[in-house]
Protein backbone atom coordinates (compact mmCIF):
# COMPACT_ATOMS: atom_id res chain seq x y z
CA UNK A 1 0.00 0.00 0.00
CA UNK A 2 1.25 3.49 -0.85
CA UNK A 3 0.33 6.84 0.70
CA UNK A 4 -2.95 8.05 -0.73
CA UNK A 5 -4.25 4.56 -1.51
CA UNK A 6 -7.46 3.26 0.07
CA UNK A 7 -6.96 1.00 3.07
CA UNK A 8 -7.01 -2.71 2.37
CA UNK A 9 -10.12 -4.54 3.51
CA UNK A 10 -12.64 -1.79 2.77
CA UNK A 11 -16.12 -2.81 1.75
CA UNK A 12 -17.25 -1.87 -1.75
CA UNK A 13 -19.28 1.01 -0.29
CA UNK A 14 -16.32 2.30 1.79
CA UNK A 15 -13.99 2.07 -1.20
CA UNK A 16 -16.56 3.92 -3.31
CA UNK A 17 -16.77 6.75 -0.72
CA UNK A 18 -12.97 6.92 -0.61
CA UNK A 19 -12.70 7.17 -4.41
CA UNK A 20 -15.50 9.75 -4.56
CA UNK A 21 -13.75 11.85 -1.92
CA UNK A 22 -10.43 11.57 -3.75
CA UNK A 23 -12.06 12.66 -7.02
CA UNK A 24 -13.65 15.65 -5.27
CA UNK A 25 -10.28 16.48 -3.69
CA UNK A 26 -8.64 16.58 -7.14
CA UNK A 27 -11.51 18.38 -8.90
CA UNK A 28 -11.02 21.90 -10.19
CA UNK A 29 -13.39 24.31 -8.44
CA UNK A 30 -14.88 27.13 -10.49
CA UNK A 31 -16.43 30.50 -9.76
CA UNK A 32 -19.77 29.16 -11.05
CA UNK A 33 -19.68 26.60 -8.22
CA UNK A 34 -18.79 29.17 -5.58
CA UNK A 35 -15.00 29.48 -5.79
CA UNK A 36 -13.84 32.90 -4.80
CA UNK A 37 -14.04 35.70 -5.30
CA UNK A 38 -10.83 35.39 -3.27
CA UNK A 39 -9.08 32.07 -2.66
CA UNK A 40 -5.68 30.39 -2.25
CA UNK A 41 -6.02 27.40 -4.58
CA UNK A 42 -8.61 26.06 -7.00
CA UNK A 43 -8.46 22.44 -5.86
CA UNK A 44 -7.53 20.75 -2.58
CA UNK A 45 -4.78 18.74 -4.25
CA UNK A 46 -3.03 21.96 -5.32
CA UNK A 47 -1.63 22.18 -1.79
CA UNK A 48 -2.14 18.69 -0.32
CA UNK A 49 -0.05 16.61 -2.71
CA UNK A 50 3.16 15.35 -1.06
CA UNK A 51 4.00 12.43 -1.30
CA UNK A 52 0.57 11.81 -2.88
CA UNK A 53 -2.86 13.40 -3.12
CA UNK A 54 -4.11 13.94 0.42
CA UNK A 55 -0.64 14.45 1.83
CA UNK A 56 1.06 17.59 3.03
CA UNK A 57 2.47 20.31 0.86
CA UNK A 58 5.66 22.23 0.36
CA UNK A 59 4.08 25.49 -0.79
CA UNK A 60 4.36 28.11 1.96
CA UNK A 61 1.37 30.39 2.44
CA UNK A 62 0.86 33.38 4.69
CA UNK A 63 -2.56 32.52 6.03
CA UNK A 64 -3.01 34.65 9.10
CA UNK A 65 -2.00 38.07 10.28
CA UNK A 66 -2.25 39.31 13.85
CA UNK A 67 -1.45 42.40 15.85
CA UNK A 68 0.07 42.25 19.31
CA UNK A 69 -0.86 45.27 21.39
CA UNK A 70 -0.49 45.67 25.14
CA UNK A 71 0.35 41.99 25.54
CA UNK A 72 -2.80 40.86 23.73
CA UNK A 73 -3.27 39.32 20.32
CA UNK A 74 -5.87 40.71 17.92
CA UNK A 75 -6.70 38.33 15.06
CA UNK A 76 -7.49 41.15 12.59
CA UNK A 77 -10.57 39.39 11.19
CA UNK A 78 -12.32 42.69 10.42
CA UNK A 79 -9.29 43.65 8.31
CA UNK A 80 -9.05 40.30 6.51
CA UNK A 81 -6.26 38.93 8.68
CA UNK A 82 -7.88 35.63 9.65
CA UNK A 83 -7.26 33.86 6.35
CA UNK A 84 -5.30 35.79 3.73
CA UNK A 85 -6.68 34.87 0.29
CA UNK A 86 -3.94 35.32 -2.30
CA UNK A 87 -5.78 34.73 -5.58
CA UNK A 88 -8.77 36.30 -7.33
CA UNK A 89 -11.19 34.78 -9.84
CA UNK A 90 -10.29 35.87 -13.40
CA UNK A 91 -13.45 37.93 -13.98
CA UNK A 92 -13.02 39.95 -10.79
CA UNK A 93 -9.31 40.36 -11.44
CA UNK A 94 -10.21 41.86 -14.83
CA UNK A 95 -12.51 44.27 -12.99
CA UNK A 96 -9.66 45.39 -10.74
CA UNK A 97 -10.25 43.27 -7.63
CA UNK A 98 -6.91 42.46 -6.01
CA UNK A 99 -5.84 39.59 -3.75
CA UNK A 100 -5.88 40.25 -0.03
CA UNK A 101 -2.79 41.80 1.42
CA UNK A 102 -1.40 41.59 4.91
CA UNK A 103 -3.22 44.32 6.85
CA UNK A 104 -0.98 47.33 7.62
CA UNK A 105 -1.73 46.99 11.33
CA UNK A 106 -0.32 43.44 11.42
CA UNK A 107 2.71 42.92 13.62
CA UNK A 108 3.07 39.21 12.90
CA UNK A 109 2.08 36.64 10.29
CA UNK A 110 1.67 32.89 10.29
CA UNK A 111 3.30 31.00 7.44
CA UNK A 112 2.20 27.43 6.96
CA UNK A 113 2.45 24.49 4.64
CA UNK A 114 -0.53 22.26 4.05
CA UNK A 115 -0.76 19.46 6.64
CA UNK A 116 -1.17 15.84 5.54
CA UNK A 117 -4.76 14.67 5.72
CA UNK A 118 -4.25 10.90 5.48
CA UNK A 119 -6.37 9.04 8.01
CA UNK A 120 -8.54 11.89 9.28
CA UNK A 121 -11.67 9.86 8.58
CA UNK A 122 -10.31 7.08 10.80
CA UNK A 123 -9.61 9.57 13.59
CA UNK A 124 -13.12 10.94 13.29
CA UNK A 125 -14.50 7.40 13.65
CA UNK A 126 -12.99 7.12 17.16
CA UNK A 127 -15.88 7.85 19.55
CA UNK A 128 -15.51 10.94 21.71
CA UNK A 129 -16.19 8.80 24.78
CA UNK A 130 -13.10 6.70 24.00
CA UNK A 131 -10.93 9.83 23.96
CA UNK A 132 -12.36 11.10 27.25
CA UNK A 133 -11.89 7.68 28.87
CA UNK A 134 -8.28 7.44 27.68
CA UNK A 135 -7.47 10.92 29.00
CA UNK A 136 -8.98 10.03 32.41
CA UNK A 137 -6.98 6.80 32.61
CA UNK A 138 -3.75 8.61 31.73
CA UNK A 139 -4.39 11.37 34.27
CA UNK A 140 -5.09 8.81 37.00
CA UNK A 141 -1.83 7.00 36.24
CA UNK A 142 0.32 9.92 37.36
CA UNK A 143 2.40 9.90 34.18
CA UNK A 144 2.47 12.06 31.10
CA UNK A 145 -1.12 12.34 29.99
CA UNK A 146 -3.15 13.78 27.18
CA UNK A 147 -6.24 15.88 27.28
CA UNK A 148 -9.25 16.16 25.05
CA UNK A 149 -9.38 19.70 23.65
CA UNK A 150 -12.80 21.24 23.91
CA UNK A 151 -14.68 23.58 21.63
CA UNK A 152 -17.19 26.35 22.18
CA UNK A 153 -19.93 23.78 21.48
CA UNK A 154 -18.76 21.47 24.27
CA UNK A 155 -17.70 18.75 21.83
CA UNK A 156 -14.13 17.53 21.55
CA UNK A 157 -12.08 19.34 18.93
CA UNK A 158 -9.39 17.18 17.36
CA UNK A 159 -8.85 18.51 13.85
CA UNK A 160 -6.87 21.46 12.55
CA UNK A 161 -3.44 22.78 13.48
CA UNK A 162 -4.62 23.78 16.92
CA UNK A 163 -7.18 21.03 17.47
CA UNK A 164 -9.99 23.56 17.16
CA UNK A 165 -12.32 21.85 14.66
CA UNK A 166 -14.79 19.24 15.92
CA UNK A 167 -15.13 17.32 12.65
CA UNK A 168 -13.43 16.81 9.32
CA UNK A 169 -16.29 18.82 7.77
CA UNK A 170 -15.58 21.77 10.13
CA UNK A 171 -11.86 21.54 9.33
CA UNK A 172 -12.58 21.58 5.58
CA UNK A 173 -15.07 24.44 5.94
CA UNK A 174 -12.42 26.57 7.65
CA UNK A 175 -9.87 25.70 4.96
CA UNK A 176 -12.28 26.73 2.20
CA UNK A 177 -13.15 30.10 3.71
Count of discrete alpha- or pi-helical segments spanning 4 or more residues:
5
Helix content: 25-40%
Q: Report the portion of residues in β strands.
A: 5-15%
Taking the sheet with the most strands, its summary is: 3 strands, antiparallel
Please state the oligomeric state of the protein chains shown: single chain
> Can you tell me the number of structural domains?
2
Give the helix/strand class.
alpha+beta
Estimate the mean pLDDT confidence: 86
Number of strands: 5
Question: What is the overall shape?
Answer: flat
- Uncertain regions: pLDDT < 50 for 5+ in a row? none
The side-by-side strand order for the widest beta sheet comes to: 3-2-5
Give the end-to-end Cα distance, rounded to a whole number of Å.
Answer: 33 Å
Q: Using only CA atoms, what is the Rg? A: 19 Å
What series of H and E elements makes up the topology? HEEEEHEHHH
Description:
The model has no long low-confidence stretch (mean pLDDT 86). The protein has five helices and five strands, in the order αββββαβααα. The chain has two domains: 28-116, no CATH class; 119-177, no CATH class. The strands form two sheets. Strands 3-2-5 form a three-stranded antiparallel sheet, with no helix packed on it. It has a two-stranded antiparallel ribbon with strand order 1-4. β2 and β3 form a beta hairpin. With 177 residues, the protein is α+β, with helices and mostly antiparallel strands. The protein has helices at residues 12-26, 90-94, 120-125, 128-140, 168-176; strands at residues 38-39, 61-69, 72-74, 87-88, 108-112. Helices cover 27% and strands 12% of the residues.
Amino acid sequence: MRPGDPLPGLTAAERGRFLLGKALFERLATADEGLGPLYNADRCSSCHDQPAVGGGGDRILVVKATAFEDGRCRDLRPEGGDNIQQRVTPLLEALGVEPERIPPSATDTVRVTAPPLFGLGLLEAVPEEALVSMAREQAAGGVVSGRVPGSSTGRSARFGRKGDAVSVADFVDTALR
